[in-house]
Write a structure and sequence with these properties.
This protein has 2 helices and 7 strands. By secondary structure, it is an alpha+beta fold.
C-alpha cells in the first residue's frame, strides 16, 4: 500500500520536563494512512536535537540546558505497542485483500438435492440399529454400543 503526502506542517516539539528541556521546530509530512504511529522521528530530527537513539535499551538521549535529557520506555509497553501494530497491519492487509478474493473465488454451495452414496460410510462393528419413529420403519439410526470411558 502506498501513502501520498498531503502536505507539510511545522510543529514545535519539546523533549524533557520543566527543569530540563530542549525545544525545536520540526517539519512533518502529513499522510492519510491508517497506522499505529502518530509520528516517526528519523535522522533529521535526531540531528536537529543532537539526539542519540539506543534501540537496545529503548532510550533517546540528547543534551539539555541542565544536563542530559533521557527519554525512554519499558519493554512491556513496547511489546504492547508492537502487538497492537501487528493487529492493525493485519487488519489493513486483510481489508485490502478481501475484495480481491471475493471477486476471484467462486462460492462453494453444496447441492443438497444430489443423492449421496452410502458406500463411503462404514460404521464400526460395535453398532446397533435403533428406530427413531415407531410409525415409520424407514427412519433408523445407528448408535455405538460401547462408549469410551472418557
Amino acid at each position: 500500500m502506498q501513502a501520498y503526502s498531503l502536505g507539510q506542517i511545522d510543529i514545535s516539539v519539546m523533549f524533557g520536563d520543566h527543569a530540563n528541556f530542549h525545544t525545536e521546530v520540526l517539519t512533518f509530512e502529513v499522510v492519510d494512512f491508517p497506522g499505529s504511529y502518530h509520528t516517526i522521528l528519523e535522522r533529521p530530527c535526531y540531528a536537529k536535537f543532537m539526539a542519540v537513539p539506543n534501540y537496545t535499551y529503548l532510550k533517546l538521549k540528547m543534551p539539555g540546558p541542565n544536563g542530559v535529557i533521557t527519554m525512554g520506555s519499558t519493554f512491556s509497553h513496547t511489546y504492547t505497542c508492537d502487538h497492537e501494530h501487528y493487529k492493525l497491519a493485519t487488519s489493513i492487509v486483510n481489508s485490502a485483500e478481501l475484495p480481491k478474493l471475493v471477486n476471484t473465488a467462486a462460492p462453494a454451495i453444496p447441492d443438497y438435492n444430489e443423492p449421496t452414496s452410502m458406500s463411503a460410510f462404514h460404521p464400526i462393528e460395535e453398532t446397533k440399529v435403533v428406530e427413531v419413529d415407531p410409525s415409520d420403519p424407514t427412519m433408523m439410526v445407528r448408535i455405538r454400543i460401547k462408549l469410551p470411558t472418557k
